[in-house]
Amino acid sequence: MGFGSDLKNSHEAVLKLQDWELRLLETVKKFMALRIKSDKEYASTLQNLCNQVDKESTIQMNYVSNVSKVSIRYHFHSA
């Protein structure tokens, strides 16, 4: 009789363990989904920031280039 009751208790313990593992995996899945979403938003924000800096540096480089051309023209025409 002891073996049957031990087997029943063991089976219940295994089921409880499996339920706990499933809840743990569901929690990990939720965490990973949030982490992926957060990483995507971070990457997107970083990309937008880099694009903005590139755009502003291009405008600034064009401005410096145009000022240099005007300075050179002015220098040669003044001489």
UniProtKB/TrEMBL annotation:
Domain F-BAR per the UniProt entry, residue ranges: 1-79
UniProt keyword annotations, A-Z: Coiled coil
Signal sequence segment: none
InterPro entries found in the cross-reference section: AH/BAR_dom_sf, F_BAR_dom, FCH_dom
Xref: SUPFAM superfamilies: BAR/IMD domain-like
Protein name: F-BAR domain-containing protein
Organism: Equus asinus (Donkey)
